[in-house]
Amino acid sequence: MNVEITERASKDFKKLDRSVKKQVKEALEKLDDFPDLTDVKQLKGSPKRYRLRVGNWRIIFCVDWEKNVLTVLTINHRKKVYR
After folding, report:
1. pLDDT given at position 76
2. Does residue 21 sit within a domain?
3. In a 3-state reduction of DSSP, which class is residue 73?
4. Is residue 50 in some structural domain?
5. Considering its fold, how many domains does the chain have in total?
6. Does residue 83 lie within any of the structural domains?
7. Quick one: 74 exposed, middle or buried, by C-beta within 10 A (0-12, 13-18, 19+)?
8. Which among 22, 24, 18 has a CA at the least distance from the CA of 58?
9. DSSP E strands, 1-83
10. Suppose 58 and one of 3, 24, 37, 81 were both cysteines; which one would form an S-S bond, judging by CB atoms 3.0 to 4.6 Å apart?
């Protein structure tokens, strides 16, 4: 599956601390194996949106099954990401 990162997600990534960046980068590399990941849940109310849990951080992404593309929408702290 092809993984694309939006401009917003890229900005979110740049704002992270170095240790969190490392964890998020490893998680993003694992997104190639979607839907076989265990920490992924589909978001309620959004049939094509999912979240990947990385400690206290969440990676929100959507999937286009027809084009085989996974798009990372945002990366944010769990307290802020669902607002």
Report:
1. 96
2. yes
3. strand
4. yes
5. 1
6. no
7. middle
8. 24
9. 2-5, 40-42, 49-54, 57-64, 69-77
10. 81
Beta strand 57-64 with 2-5 is: unpaired
- Residue 30 tokens read as 């694992």
- 77 pLDDT higher than 90: yes
Rounded-to-integer distance, Cα 7 and Cα 30, Å:
20
Residue 67, domain extent: 2-77
Is 65 inside a domain boundary?
yes
Contact predicate 20/36, CB 8 Å:
no
pLDDT in tens, 13-60: 999 999 999 999 999 998 888 777 778 899 998 888 999 999 999 999
Stretch 2-20: mean pLDDT: 95
